[in-house]
Write a structure and sequence with these properties.
alpha+beta, four-stranded antiparallel β-sheet, flat, Rieske Iron-sulfur Protein, single chain, 30% strand, 143 residues
Length: 143
């Protein structure tokens, strides 16, 4: 008489767990794989020695006003004085959407900021975060 082997439920579960772990380890293996390409430079940054991309042209930023470029607000409160600010409102994290009548407006909840970033009308009480910008020729660049 021949006997057939029996497998317990515990054995099946244990075997499945070992198989899953082996598959996970094999999937994570990089043996023989090509090295990963370097990550691209972050927006607003450049490779060493390369020209820094302009956020805006100085002519595009009016005195007493400003422009919003991506996550950066650039204002010119007085002639030749360019200010960089975060476009994230300090009240609830919305993005400020317009600059008019000498104020930066967040339409989410009605906050207003002066051209230097200070809060002038709530509910926001904190100023917009400063971002370093500088003029290079006729361009305004980050940094």
């Amino acid at each position: 008489m021949t006997t057939s082997p029996t497998v317990s439920r515990r054995g099946v579960v244990l075997g499945a767990g070992v198989a899953a772990a082996a598959a996970a380890v094999a999937g994570c293996s990089t043996y023989g794989a090509e090295p990963a390409a370097p990550a691209p430079a972050a927006p607003g940054t450049a490779e060493p020695g390369a020209p820094i991309p302009a956020l805006a042209k100085t002519a595009d930023v009016p005195v007493g006003g400003g422009v919003i470029v991506g996550d950066t607000v650039i204002t010119q409160p007085t002639p030749g004085n360019y200010v960089g600010l975060s476009s994230t409102c300090t009240h609830a994290g919305c993005t400020v959407t317009e600059i008019q009548d000498g104020a930066i407006d967040c339409v989410c909840h009605g906050s207003k900021f002066a051209l230097d970033g200070t809060a002038v009308a709530g509910p926001a009480k904190k100023p917009l975060a400063a971002k370093v910008v500088r003029v290079e020729g006729d361009s305004i660049v980050a940094g």
